[in-house]
Specification:
Layout: E1 6-12, H1 18-24, H2 31-37, E2 40-44, H3 54-64, E3 72-76, E4 79-80, H4 99-107, E5 113-116, H5 118-122, E6 135-136, E7 140-141, E8 144-145, E9 162-164, H6 171-182, H7 196-199, H8 210-214, H9 229-232, E10 281-282, E11 285-286, H10 295-307, H11 311-317
Parallel strand pairs: 1-2, 1-3, 3-5, 5-9
Antiparallel strand pairs: 4-6, 7-8, 10-11
Helix pairs in contact: 1-6
C-alpha cells in the first residue's frame, strides 16, 4: 500500500456517461471501492461525488494551476473542439470556458492521463462521419495521432495518454489499469495507447459461439445460437479485447446475448461500412475477415469447414436453444 493518497480527477467531456456506469460494476464493490484499497481516491467525479457548483470550479482551477496535486486525470467522452476550433460546443457549466481548455490545462499538470472509453481515446460516436462537433480523442483523431493534446504529449510520468478503449470499457480494465497506476506500475501500451494486457487478445477468444465459428455454422437471427460473423456483422475476430475471456459482471458478454461485436475498441468503429448488425459482403464473402488471415485461406477453410459440419452444430446454429445435444457415444459415419 502507498502511504500518501493517490489523487484522481475525473472529467466528463462529450459522452453518454456509460463509462462511469461501467465502473460501478467493477468486482469488489465498484471502482471507487477498489481504488481505495490501493490508496487512491477521487478528488472529484461528476457522477459519484456530492460536491457541486462553486467549490468544484475552485477545485478545478487549483488543479489547472498546479496548486492541487492531480496524480491521475481521467477524461470520459470525446473533447468537442467545434465550432471552428473554439470548443464552445461544450462549456463547463459556470465557467464560460470550453471543456477543451480545462482538459488541456489540467493534463499539463497531471502525473498520468487516461482516456476512459473510445470517445475519449479516439473521438468515438461523437466523431462519426458528418458530425460537426469537432470531436477528437485526447491524443488520437480516429486512428491518427494528434487529438486535443497533440502527438508529442507526455504526462509527468513520461507516458502518453493511456487509452482504455471500449464502448463502454470493461469494468475490470478500469479497475486494473487505474490500480496499477496508483501503485506506480503503469501498463505497457500498444501503438494506439491501449494496455497490452487487454489489446493482446481478441474479443473472439473465449466466445461461447466458437464451435459454430469453427464449422462456419452461421446464425440468421440474433436469437439463433450460431456464429454471428457471416450474416450479423460480428467483428470479434478483428476487435482487440479480452471481454469474452472475463465475462461482464461475472456472467455475460455481447456475443453471449446475441449482439454482434462491433469492434468498439478500434479507432473509427463508429464509421462501419454497413449497419452494425449486418455483414457487408462482396460476391458472398464477408468484407471483414480475421485480421491476420489471408482471404483466400479463409474462403478455402470456410468451404472445408461447412462440408464437415456435424448435423448437431448445423441444426443448433439456427435455433434459440439446443435442439440436438452432443452424442452420448461414438458416431457412425453416414
Amino acid at each position: 500500500m502507498v502511504s500518501e493518497r493517490f489523487s484522481i480527477l475525473w472529467l466528463q467531456a462529450g459522452g453518454c456517461g456509460g463509462c462511469a456506469v461501467a465502473g460501478l460494476g467493477a468486482e469488489g464493490g465498484g471502482l471507487a471501492a477498489v481504488l481505495k484499497r490501493f490508496g487512491a481516491e477521487f478528488l472529484w467525479h461528476p457522477s459519484l461525488s456530492t460536491l457541486s457548483g462553486a467549490p468544484v470550479i475552485a477545485l478545478l482551477e487549483a488543479c489547472a494551476l498546479g496548486h492541487t496535486r492531480v496524480d491521475l486525470l481521467c477524461v470520459e467522452g470525446a473533447v468537442l473542439t467545434g465550432p471552428k476550433g473554439s470548443g464552445r460546443f461544450q462549456i463547463l457549466s459556470g465557467t464560460r470556458r470550453p471543456m477543451a481548455e480545462w482538459v488541456t490545462a489540467i493534463a499539463a499538470q497531471a502525473g498520468a492521463v487516461v482516456a476512459v472509453g473510445s470517445c475519449a481515446a479516439f473521438g468515438g460516436v461523437a466523431a462519426a462521419l458528418g458530425a460537426e462537433t469537432g470531436a477528437v480523442g485526447l491524443q488520437f483523431r480516429d486512428g491518427d495521432l494528434g487529438g486535443l493534446l497533440g502527438a508529442d504529449f507526455r504526462a509527468r510520468n513520461g507516458l502518453p495518454v493511456i487509452n482504455l478503449a471500449g464502448c463502454a470499457p470493461h469494468p475490470g480494465w478500469l479497475a486494473e489499469s487505474l490500480s496499477a497506476l496508483a501503485l506506480g506500475d503503469p501498463p505497457p501500451l500498444d501503438e494506439f495507447g491501449r494496455p497490452r494486457a487487454i489489446a493482446n487478445h481478441l474479443a473472439h477468444h473465449g466466445c461461447g459461439r466458437n464451435e459454430f465459428y469453427e464449422f462456419k455454422a452461421s446464425a440468421m437471427r440474433s436469437s439463433d445460437r450460431g456464429c454471428l460473423m457471416e450474416n450479423l456483422g460480428c467483428k470479434a475476430t478483428q476487435a482487440p479485447g479480452d471481454c469474452n475471456l472475463r465475462r461482464w459482471n461475472g456472467s455475460g458478454s455481447c456475443t453471449d446475448g446475441g449482439f454482434a461485436c462491433i469492434a468498439c475498441t478500434v479507432p473509427g468503429f463508429q464509421n462501419a461500412p454497413a449497419p452494425f448488425q449486418r455483414t457487408p459482403k462482396i460476391a458472398g464473402i464477408p468484407v471483414g475477415l480475421p485480421l491476420d488471415m489471408p482471404k483466400a485461406w479463409f474462403v478455402a477453410l470456410a468451404a472445408l469447414s461447412k462440408s464437415a459440419t456435424p448435423k448437431r452444430v448445423r441444426t443448433n446454429a439456427l435455433a434459440d436453444h439446443v435442439v440436438l445435444p452432443p452424442a452420448r457415444g461414438p458416431v457412425k459415419p453416414t
